[in-house]
TrEMBL record, chains A, B:
Protein family membership: Belongs to the methylmalonyl-CoA epimerase family.
PANTHER family tied to this protein: METHYLMALONYL-COA EPIMERASE (PTHR43048), METHYLMALONYL-COA EPIMERASE, MITOCHONDRIAL (PTHR43048:SF3)
Protein name: Methylmalonyl-CoA epimerase
Keywords: Isomerase, Metal-binding
Organism: Sphingomonas canadensis
Enzyme class: isomerase
Pfam families assigned: Glyoxalase_4
EC number: 5.1.99.1
Length: 147, 147
């Protein structure tokens, strides 16, 4: 397998609204997308674009703000340990999600569940941080209209 | 201030050698730089390039692998809490490090020390995670020959 593009960095927050204000007013983000719910995953998310260079705007990896949605959200445990929020996962793109799953499993890595539709509308899975140098890693199929 | 390019994601590891093997053999990274010591900061680091797209190679943000260097390394505490390693900080570029320091301080954010030379040879500082949504944030001046 060849390392793909870093699509986004997942950052957990107790409040997406407060985090949007932080990224807009303190960090100076120019492009912040509309937040939306992912009920199947128990999260509400919001993507903040980063620029590729000094010209600003978009094109670099996004910051994915993640807030718990519902009482069964898997994010509650993270916030109990890190009440202010913090870095949660890294997401890399692959051309074929099923080939990627077979690759990681062949390397003895623990893939968490079957591929499912993620926040960008393509198939994703997560790999357990214990097998990935302590980094919870999301693998997502590159959107067909991207890049 | 305008959000700058995401230069790198800092990832702590108990062993840079083992992490290089992981990023090369499991993640498929094609460009991994020579590790080097930063004695003033008590760390040994190694940059792994990520691609901008499906063509592979470099151009995206780097992964900065960080291993403790010496008994007084500030990274020992992180590894005591996270023995396998894990995500440590995000680093964004700015055109002027002193203007950026004044900006964050003006926003009431705790800047950790004076600007100093970082791993890419330009001035950097860190901002305390408690003021940054739980994310330890490095701000670095863009290298003059970059991008």
């Amino acid at each position: 397998m060849k390392l793909g593009r870093l699509n986004h960095i997942g950052v957990v927050t107790p409040s997406i609204e407060a985090s949007i204000a932080f990224w807009r007013d303190t960090m100076g983000a120019e492009v912040i997308r509309e937040p939306f719910d992912l009920p199947a995953q128990g999260v509400r998310v919001c993507f903040v674009d980063t620029p590729l260079g000094a010209a600003g705007g978009s094109g670099g990896p996004q910051i994915e703000l993640i807030e718990p949605l519902g009482e069964a959200s898997p994010i509650h445990g993270f916030l109990a340990k890190n009440p202010a929020g913090g870095q949660h996962h890294l997401c890399f793109e692959v051309p074929d999600i099923h080939a990627a799953k077979a690759w990681f499993e062949g390397q003895g890595k623990k893939v968490l569940g079957e591929p499912r539709i993620g926040a960008h509308g393509t198939l994703i899975f997560f790999v357990h941080p214990k097998d990935m140098g302590g980094v919870l890693t999301e693998i997502m199929e590159t959107p067909k209209d991207a890049h």
